[in-house]
């Protein structure tokens, strides 16, 4: 039985709420060709999770929140993030109004 304790952080950034959850390390699975994964922070959204950064034991709360915000800026709001699921949603074709 593992003694790992899951942590959660909710971060409000640029007017949006983000939910981050830590998961314990996963050993490599050679049969599936999957490498080992260290304890990690993941962004949870719409029933999916995205890896964010390795979790460091004993890291102060302020440092964790600062790192999560930096990740959000670089990955959810940065110029390259415009094509990801985390970027602001664009209107669909059906939402566009006809020009008269």
Structural class, by secondary structure, is: alpha+beta
How many extended strands?
Answer: 4
**Order of strands across the main sheet:** 1-2-3-4
Uncertain stretches of 5 or more adjacent residues: 95-100
Summed over residues and divided by their number, the pLDDT gives a mean of: 84
Helix content: 10-25%
Task: Give the count of structural domains.
Answer: 1
Distance between the termini: 66 Å
Shape type:
globular
Strand content: 25-35%
Strand count, sense and closure of the main sheet? 4 strands, antiparallel
Radius of gyration: 17 Å
- What is the H/E string? EEEEH
Summarize the structure.
This protein is an alpha+beta fold and 100 residues long.
